[in-house]
Structure formats: structure tokens, C-alpha cells
Amino acid sequence: MIRETVVTTRAEDGHIHIAPMGIREEGEYLLLAPFRPSQSLDNMLREHCAVINYTDDVRIIAGCLTGRWQWPLCPANRIAGARLQDTLAHTEVLVERVEDDELRPRLLCRPVHEEQHAPFHGFNRAQAAVLEAAILVSRLHMLPRQKIQSEIEYLTIAVEKTAGPHEQQAWEWLMEAVTQFRDKQHNEVIV
Fold it and tell me: Could you count the other beta carbons within 10 Å of the beta carbon of residue 107?
């Protein structure tokens, strides 16, 4: 099972990098497997730690995919880094083992601190739709145009029926990214 989270890592210059990332449990470890190239991967290999943030604010995920990386942070408790200020919970991890791979290395991380910050009030179908659309946006360059279009048409139903202001804003950001990608493709074909 893959859980969609937001991972924060410390860059070489000290700034905090924020990126959506799926994680898995593997025994006592949390497994992170970012695709290369990845700033998160570079940071975790250098710093040997990260913070896994569990959030229901899909704006953060959509924002990171559309160039909006400025989210409030606060210091982590046990590692050199920071967590999202408005996350529901977070887990601080140390990278204990790296299984290298050209495309997607596997980082087995040991949790060293976990904390709850706010209650989880349940899912909204629009949140799930935004999450799926965010994954599509992250793969626009790999997927056929028709698949993208049919997925968006289906996901739009949940957004139109159940979105609150946060989900609507995240959806708009993602749809802008899809439009920009299509326009760029169209212009490249014309030239």
C-alpha cells in the first residue's frame, strides 16, 4: 500500500525542500523511492534524514507540482530539518539503508519521532480527485493525451460535487498546469 504524503528535506544551503511523495511500510521501516533526478533524494542521501508530513490540505501537493513551494514550516524535533506547520501529523526519519538503482533508489528509513497535531475529520471526494489529478500532472510527459483528458473528465465530477475552497484552488492550479503543458506541446508541433 502506498500512502501519499509530503516529504520535507534540508537542502545543502539549509533551505527546506517540500515535495509530494508516496511512501510504503516495509517492516519496521518507511520506504521512500523517489525517481531520479530528485532534490529530495539528493537531500536525503546527503543529510540522512527527512520528515514525512501527513496532510489533508491538497493545496500543498498541488502547489508543489505547480511551483508553489512556500508553505509555513516549523523545526523538527529530533532531526536537522523542518515539518509543515499545518500538517495533521508528522514522522521524522533517519535513512538507514539505501538500495541504489539508476531510476528509483529505495531508501529504508527508521522513524525516530512521531507526533499528532490535529484531528483527521474524514475524506472528501474532491481531495481524492485532486490527489489523482496531481499524480497525472506529475506524469504529463509520460501519458497519452487521451488518457489524461478522460481521467480529468472523470475527476471533475467529484470536484464539482464536493470541493471546498481549498480543493477548488488546488484543482485550478492543476488545470492551469495541464493547459500550459498542452499549449507548449501545441507550439512545439507548430514550430
Answer: 24
pTM: 0.91
User: pLDDT tens digit string along 131-144?
Assistant: 999 999 999 988 99
Residue whose cell numbers read 530539518: 81
The cell for 10 is: 534540508
Nearest of 66, 50, 59, 177 to residue 127 by alpha carbon: 59
Pick the CATH number of 3-116 from 2.30.110.10, 3.20.20.140, 3.40.640.10, 3.30.70.3490: 2.30.110.10
Name beta bridge partners: 173. none
Distance CA 72, CA 81 (A): 13
Let me know: does 16 contact 73? Beta carbons within 8 Å.
Answer: yes
Tell me the per-residue pLDDT of 33-85, one tens digit each, with 9 for 90 and over: 999 999 999 999 999 999 999 999 999 999 999 999 899 999 999 999 999 99
Of 78, 95, 77, 81, nearest to 23 by C-alpha is: 95
